[in-house]
Design brief:
heterotrimer, A alpha/beta (247), B alpha/beta (374), C alpha/beta (368), B: 374 residues, abc type-2 transporter like fold, 4-stranded mixed sheet, 15 helices, C: 368 residues, alpha/beta, 2 domains
């Protein structure tokens, strides 16, 4: 049996009477690209924050890379990468300085940092910009850079929270190429999105509606089940009954 | 430890990158230290006085001349009536009215007693009330030197009796100059503002921009993150403190009478307490505006209740307790003790103990209240 | 006009949606007024004095009793010599020492005079001077009572009258100043972040491309803070009257008009700072760290402005709170009308006009 890197059982997060995440269960295998879909406000980000160790679950259990989200958050953090929808590199540090800092705090040795960042800059064609402040880069580059930084320390899993918000189609395409490369190298990808074309790129996707997980399968199977040929339609059929409209 | 190295490298890079902020951290306090103490003087001079002389006698003229030459008063008007003089108080051009009643000289000679009315603008801070006291003392001096008092009254006892002479001296500051009192205190305040405002703003800013989330998802430990923020600002604080001491010496000619290393030990401890305060504020606040207002609230209390401008001991008991809970009041006290009196380690032990307690408690609270996982 | 209202509404929503900020904005200044109103005093009390009575005779004991009876001192009695005094001062528990020499009484009756020595810790000059004044007065009164022959035959007495503040209410001296100080710092800091925040978040561009005159953007930014500040002022005023027992002697209407003008001045200053800076941090540092101490000092409620060197007196003229302080003292506490404060009012008006012009100019430049 293949290795499960995320195992999630009845995971729940409650704010007062409000169930942001309501008993979701699923698991993700090593190297898989796992899509996490849902309308705005469906609870994707909350669930992801629990898995990253940023938020405590109210009940239920989940393990990430074999560690519990209830009390082993710090161990989880050593094994994952994270890129949030809010761009989160330091704008007043240069590209190299950002890489050095985040690589450093994840325990990459100074020598490795130097070698890997040289290669990264080469691959991305950023030789001229390496010493520029991140704040001065166009958004698309920032996003690609943020992704590269989040997998710089070769984590087991990388969590991407709406990574392609606001970037152009060409850049999105390039971004997904980078995701495939990372996946090929054995990194498990956990990605939230609301672009349906992106959902097609995933091995498996789950759809959240009102904090509950309404569907979980490969894109092809889902389309078959809902008798349609587009993911848009699948999503529309599932999300139509949502009580919590997006904001 | 390794993480701490990377954190420090990052913080220093960011601090030195932003030249505006760096310049402000260094320049704002230094410029203020060079200018503001010149304005801090409670030696009351130039008290504006309006005189209503209803007597026009030779005594009243002598008294007025004496007051005019005392050096404290500026006689801005000689009015015909009290009402006229009150106009001057109302429009702010005068602080005091002295009204000499008609028959002033005659009554004094005949009855041996005469009262002069002094009206004080009692909402004019200390100026008018101190002015009133000065005026009373000039009058009593005039009284003592009056020709009729010089003539010794024949007495059964030829020797004068029971005259108590009072001598006084001010130690450490014989000329009672205010700069010695205020300058070290102002340095402490400026240091407080940098430490308090800067740290509070810095962390909240990471919250607002969202980078703190990225930090929280890394394996960086709480104490590493907090130390990574503390150390750079601690160093900046000590640099400002050093420049401040140099300015105090160059501009005001004040050097520390006591041990300089001891002064630095206290300042170092104080900075830790203060940075802990800033951190604590930042863990409670969500935005820079909030952090700034909370910091503003406390720092204004620190300034006005620390004993820098008004004496702590004169405040009501509850206010003295509040004052005791501000780290600033203890540091100002120690600064004055070491710098001006040359107090030693054993003299300041209690106060230093308070500061140390603040440092421990505030930082412990900050670390405890900083949540990587919510 | 309709768009302006929509805009102002939006700004109001920004401010009111966040109850925490709101609490901080209203709660903290109000707490400060109460705190400072009760705590601050220019009177010197509870002075730690050490009485070294080397004579222990009837007269020295009686004088000591007189000092005890006054409410100004906390007394320790101990015979003490020169180096011990130094030690005591260095430790800090003693602020002054009063020394009666040996044979004090004896000298008084046989030599006709004797010396009392006061040594004060001069590091606090104000307290040192006050100590000498208090003690001189107490000893002088005792002397007059005990040895009337040694005192003057013809006496001029003074009768002080406290104008505007007959009960000698201590808060009256500080409240107007603290009001001016808090209003100025709070108003300026709040507005100073308003525009720079939008610049940081990148929402400024959205406003600038809207069919909205830039000046209107400024106005809509300022209006909510103007109203909030007036509410703040009202709260402070209510507290002063009901809690600190300060009578408002003058016209409330005039007081409000003047305060509204002052608030406008501060808002303009804040807008100017906001336009001139690019980060909230910078704006806040200028409006708080840069302005706090100068405002405290140049408002003139702690140190008399007339005593300052002329350069600083000149500087104090550009501090709006100085003028407002003069105005509220006159209107609120002295009960005077506009004819007494027209000059200060005019100065505030000119300041507002100049600051606003600069703010608007800077704002337009950013558009191009």
């Amino acid at each position: 049996m293949e290795e499960k890197v995320i195992v999630c059982k009845d995971l729940t997060k409650q704010f007062g009477d409000f169930y942001a995440v309501d008993k979701i269960s699923f698991d993700v295998s090593k190297g898989e690209i796992f899509g996490f879909l849902g309308a705005n406000g469906a609870g994707k980000t909350t669930a992801m924050r629990i898995l990253c160790g940023l938020s405590y679950p109210s009940s239920g259990e989940a393990t990430v890379a074999g560690f519990s989200v209830r009390n082993q958050q710090e161990s989880i953090k050593k094994n994952i990468g994270y890129m949030s929808q809010k761009f989160s590199l330091y704008e007043n540090l240069s590209i190299l300085e950002n890489i050095e800092f985040f690589g450093g705090v994840y325990g990459v040795s100074r020598k490795d940092i130097r070698e890997r960042s040289d290669k990264l800059i080469q691959d991305m064609g950023l030789q001229k910009e390496a010493k520029k402040m991140v704040g001065s880069l166009p958004l698309g580059w920032k996003q690609k850079l943020a992704f590269s930084v989040s997998i710089f320390h070769r984590p087991k899993i990388v969590f991407l929270d709406e990574p392609t918000g606001g970037v152009d189609p060409v850049t999105r395409r390039q971004f997904w190429d980078m995701i495939y490369d990372a996946s090929a190298s054995g990194i498990t990808i956990f990605v939230t999105t609301h672009y349906m074309d992106e959902a097609e790129y995933c091995n498996r996707i789950s759809v959240m509606v009102d904090g509950k997980m309404e569907a979980l399968d490969s894109p092809a199977n889902l389309k078959k089940r809902y008798a349609t040929d587009s993911m848009d339609e699948v999503f529309y059929k599932l999300a139509r009954g949502a009580r919590r409209s997006g904001d | 430890m390794r993480n701490l190295g990377f954190l420090l490298q990052k913080e220093f890079r960011q601090i030195f990158r932003d030249k505006t902020i760096l310049a402000m951290i260094l320049a704002l306090p230094i410029i203020q230290l060079m200018i503001l103490p010149w304005a801090m003087n409670l030696n009351i001079k130039n008290i504006n006085l309006s005189i209503v002389d209803n007597d026009h006698s030779s005594y009243s003229q002598q008294l007025i001349t004496k007051i005019g030459s005392s050096g404290y008063f500026r006689i801005i008007s000689a009015d015909r009536s009290y009402k006229e003089a009150l106009e001057h108080i109302e429009n702010g051009s005068s602080d005091l009215i002295m009204e000499l009643p008609s028959g002033f000289e005659r009554n004094l000679v005949r009855e041996g007693k005469q009262t002069i009315g002094i009206s004080v603008d009692a909402i004019n801070g200390s100026k008018a009330s101190i002015g009133g006291a000065y005026l009373a003392s000039v009058i009593s001096d005039f009284n003592a030197n009056l020709a009729i008092n010089e003539i010794k009254v024949p007495d059964y006892n030829t020797k004068p009796t029971g005259f108590m002479e009072i001598t006084f001296s001010n130690w450490y500051n014989p000329l009672a100059e205010y700069k010695y009192f205020f300058v070290p205190g102002v340095l402490v305040l400026l240091l407080t503002m940098i430490g308090g405002f800067m740290t509070a703003l810095n962390i909240v800013r990471e919250k607002e921009v969202g980078t703190i989330e990225q930090i929280n998802v890394t394996p960086i430990k709480k104490w590493e993150f907090i130390l990574g923020k503390l150390i750079p600002f601690w160093i900046i604080g000590m640099i400002v403190f050093t420049i401040g001491l140099l300015v105090i010496w160059a501009v005001y000619g004040i050097t520390s009478l006591g041990s300089l290393p001891l002064l630095y030990v206290v300042a170092g401890t104080y900075m830790i307490a203060l940075l802990g305060f800033g951190l604590l504020v930042s863990t409670f606040c969500e935005s820079q505006v909030q952090a700034m207002f909370v910091a503003f609230f406390f720092i204004l209390i620190f300034i006005l209740m620390s004993g820098l401008f008004t004496a702590v001991q004169s405040m009501p008991a509850w206010a003295r307790i509040i004052s005791g809970f501000t780290p600033v009041s203890h540091f100002i006290k120690i600064m004055r003790m070491i710098m001006l009196k040359g107090s030693g380690f054993s003299d300041i032990l209690t106060e230093l103990g308070y500061i140390l307690t603040f440092a421990l408690v505030l930082n412990a609270l900050a670390i405890w209240n900083y949540r990587k996982t919510s | 006009m309709k768009e302006l209202l929509v805009f102002i509404k939006k700004e109001f929503k920004h401010v009111f949606r966040d109850p925490r900020t709101l609490l901080i904005m209203f709660g903290l200044p109000v707490a400060q007024i109460v705190l400072f109103g009760f705590a601050l005093t220019s009177e010197v009390k509870n002075i730690d004095i050490l009485i070294a009575d080397n004579s222990k005779d009837m007269i020295s004991t009686q004088i000591t009793d007189k000092i005890k009876a006054s409410r100004y001192f906390i007394i320790q009695e101990k015979n003490i010599g020169g180096t011990d005094i130094d030690r005591a001062f260095k430790r800090g528990g003693v602020q002054s020492v009063l020394i009666f020499p040996a044979n004090f009484s004896n000298d008084l009756s046989h030599e006709g005079k004797a010396q009392v020595q006061i040594i004060a810790d001069g590091t606090d000059p104000n307290t040192a001077k006050t100590i000498v004044n208090y003690l001189t007065a107490i000893i002088g009164a005792y002397q007059q009572e005990k040895f009337p022959t040694a005192s003057l035959r013809y006496q001029i007495l003074t009768e002080p009258r406290m104008l505007y503040n007959e009960e000698d209410n201590g808060s009256m001296n500080f409240i107007p100043g603290v009001m001016a100080l808090i209003l100025m710092l709070v108003c300026t800091a709040l507005t100073s972040v308003s525009i720079v925040k939008e610049k940081e978040l990148g929402t400024m561009e959205i406003l600038l491309v809207s069919p909205f005159k830039p000046v209107m953007v400024l106005v809509s930014k300022a209006v909510p803070y103007f109203i909030l500040s007036l509410i703040n002022f009202t709260l402070i005023l209510l507290l002063s009257v009901f809690l600190l027992h300060i009578d408002i002697k003058g016209s409330i209407l005039l007081l409000y008009m003047e305060s509204a003008l002052f608030i406008l001045t501060c808002l303009s200053l804040g807008l100017m700072i906001s336009n001139a800076t690019n980060a909230q941090q910078t704006a806040l540092l200028i409006s708080m760290m840069g302005m706090m101490l100068p405002t405290i000092i140049f408002t003139g409620f702690i140190f008399p402005l007339e005593n300052m060197p002329w350069v600083l007196r000149t500087i104090s003229n550009i501090v709006p709170s100085k003028w407002y302080f003069l105005i509220i003292k006159s209107v609120m506490l002295k009960g005077l009308g506009l004819q007494y404060v027209w000059k200060e009012t005019l100065i505030l008006m000119v300041m507002t006009a100049v600051l606003l012009t600069i703010a608007i100019k800077k704002f337009k430049i950013r558009l191009q």
